[in-house]
Amino acid sequence: MSYCGTFITAEELHDKYGGVTMVVDTLEELMPAAMDKARELCRRGPLVLRYLKACMNEQEDFQIHRKDELEVTYTRYMARHADFKEGVSAFLEKREPQYTGQ
Secretion signal: which residues (predicted)? Predict the structure, then answer.
């Protein structure tokens, strides 16, 4: 997805890649589905869930911090090139970009 600049739907993320556990069709289905998932989690061991959540939150914070730094670094690098400006212009003008490798 990153290399091609393609977008992916929640359904594709769920069906093909397992990146989400559930997709609901309407906003009205969201809260009941969330409550069902919460009840399922409540049947698990509370200490395990507490420490798993803490572990995941700490990893996420670290990854987000590192990810943000890398994105800023590479965005600054890319923004200096004509191809970056062409890509942004083409996107805004809704046309195919004409890259030159510069």
Answer: none
Cβ distance 90 to 98 under 8 Å? yes
The domains of the chain are located at 1-43, 45-102
CA distance 64 to 70: 10
Residue 79: C-alpha distances to residues 5, 25, 42, 71 (Å): 17, 39, 48, 12
The pTM (predicted TM-score) of the whole model is: 0.48
Per-residue pLDDT at 1 = 65
Answer whether CATH 1.10.287 is correct for domain 45-102. no
Sites in the chain below the pLDDT cut of 70: 1-3
